[in-house]
Specification:
Length: 99
Amino acid sequence: MVYGTAIGAVLIATVIRWALGAYVHDRIPFTTYYPAIVVATLLGGFWLGSFASVVSGFLAWWLFMPPTFGFSFDAAQITSLVAFLLVCVLLVGAVAALN
């Protein structure tokens, strides 16, 4: 049940980001995933929050960073992905510690 809720939160964040796509293009691929990661961490702890972070990063990279539905290895995109994952580690750690 907890894993399903965490995956559902990530999917809802993906749908919201998809809906915002016409307005933001590829400038903010990760923004909608932070609340889903917080929900996953609150429900399942550190490891489920970490799992939600990795899945969110994968989905955002695959769906919202050019080329769409593919992986490119542009230095700016890799920097953005690494920064997202580092922020997620801090976010998950803080939420797990406070919970």
